[in-house]
Amino acid sequence: MRFDIITCLPRLLDSPFSHSILKRAIDKGLTEVHVHDLRDYSPSKHRQTDDYPYGGGAGMVMMIEPIHRIISKLKEERPYDAVVYMTPDGLTLNQKMANSYSLLKNIIILCGHYKGVDERVREKYITHEVSIGDYVLSGGELAAAVFADAIIRLIPGVLSDETSALTDSFQDDLLSPPVYTRPAEFIGMKVPEVLLSGHEKNIELWRMEQALERTKSRRPDLYDKQHVAKPNIS
Ligand code: 6GU
Known about the structure:
A five-stranded parallel beta sheet has the order 2-1-6-5-7. Strands 3-4 form a two-stranded antiparallel sheet. The chain is 32% helix and 18% strand. It has helices at residues 20-27, 64-77, 95-101, 119-124, 141-152, 193-196, 200-218, 220-223, and strands spanning 2-7, 32-37, 50-51, 61-62, 82-92, 106-111, 128-131, 185-186, 189-190. It has two domains: 2-152, SPOUT methyltransferase, trefoil knot domain (Alpha/beta knot, 3-Layer(aba) Sandwich), CATH 3.40.1280; 169-223, tRNA(m1g37)methyltransferase, domain 2 (Trp Operon Repressor, Chain A). The chain is an alpha/beta fold. It is elongated and about 70 Å long. Strand 5, helix 3 and strand 6 form a beta-alpha-beta unit. The site of 6-chloroguanine (6GU) has 13 residues, from strand 5.
């Protein structure tokens, strides 16, 4: 899967793709992430990519021409399945959306900035608009990194244990159960006995109960989506 990320702040995206799971996915050739500096596509000698809004008001607006240039160039090179604009007024990202995007081959991500992008860019080039939550970030770069991370970890082979993405919180609208590691006792705090028992069935049952209990208390909205017979948890 290939990502082409368009931004006026390319350095902001250096770190997220240079470490840990995302770096390994790129090194293994399971994904390609190409970050493009929008300023390189500006027709002006000052490499301008934004301008004052027509009608006045505060803030700057991203211009259409540099974006037209980079997107046209990319589309000449290969077909794209989606051109995603990162914006707080987009569709709020969730696990199901990440799952569907992970099936695509080539995607362009445009990072929004300032007051946003000239509306004609959205009309002509953008196929999907994504937000990562109901709060405002300074720009779309961190949101693009979050979006790409949520997708890339789902690509087969990216996680060492292929089943682990399937057991993530939210994959089945359930939060994950608590986890513990050594030591079995620390300053009087003990790991639940069942986890030390070696009894796989009981462990699985305990984890499911804990997941349901956690979901019920922390995310009643998700708990109500559960179709399974719910145990009596007070
Ligand atoms: Cl995609 N962009 C910005 N600037 N702020 C956000 C966002 C995106 N998603 C949530 N807040």
